[in-house]
């Protein structure tokens, strides 16, 4: 059986007529993701998704669209097909790479889904014990 890599670059409709200064960084980030994923061939590796989460041109992570209240609410999910294990987090506003928190949820707990205050508390707990990537961003940085 082969393997597959599925990338979702955020919600919304992205027009084909994006100007080059917006389109090119997206293409570069996607190519890096695909290259990393192809080289690793492991769904557990999440660093290739960081390319999307760290790129301000994607509706994910740093490029998240703000809610009506002017806040960020991110979510991420990861699944290992061979083991059927999964982890999902939602309603995050202080975690730099949501997919990494979803992976840690899958690997370190019996839970498959945490949202909002529970997900943020899990991230803070890991920050205290494992020096994980919890950040507080201001609205102006998005």
TrEMBL record:
Keywords: Autocatalytic cleavage. Its EC number is 3.4.19.5. The keyword Electron transport does not apply. Pfam families: Asparaginase_2. InterPro entries: Ntn_hydrolases_N, Peptidase_T2. It catalyses: Cleavage of a beta-linked Asp residue from the N-terminus of a polypeptide. GO terms for molecular function: beta-aspartyl-peptidase activity; hydrolase activity, acting on carbon-nitrogen (but not peptide) bonds, in linear amides. SUPFAM superfamilies: N-terminal nucleophile aminohydrolases (Ntn hydrolases) (SSF56235). PANTHER family: L-ASPARAGINASE, N(4)-(BETA-N-ACETYLGLUCOSAMINYL)-L-ASPARAGINASE. Heterotetramer of two alpha and two beta chains arranged as a dimer of alpha/beta heterodimers. This is beta-aspartyl-peptidase. It comes from Setaria italica (Foxtail millet).
């Amino acid at each position: 059986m082969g393997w597959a890599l599925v990338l979702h670059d955020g919600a919304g409709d992205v027009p084909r007529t994006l100007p080059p200064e917006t389109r090119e960084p997206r293409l570069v980030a996607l190519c890096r993701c695909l290259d990393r994923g192809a080289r690793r061939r492991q769904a557990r590796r999440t660093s290739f998704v960081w390319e999307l989460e760290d790129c301000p041109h994607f509706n994910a992570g740093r490029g998240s669209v703000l809610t009506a209240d002017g806040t960020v609410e991110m979510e991420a999910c990861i699944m290992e097909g061979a083991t059927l294990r999964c982890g999902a987090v939602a309603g995050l506003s202080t975690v730099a790479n949501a997919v990494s928190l979803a992976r840690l949820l899958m690997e370190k707990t019996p839970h498959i889904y945490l949202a909002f205050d529970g997900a943020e508390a899990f991230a803070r707990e890991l920050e205290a014990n494992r020096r994980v990537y919890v950040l507080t961003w201001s609205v102006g940085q998005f």
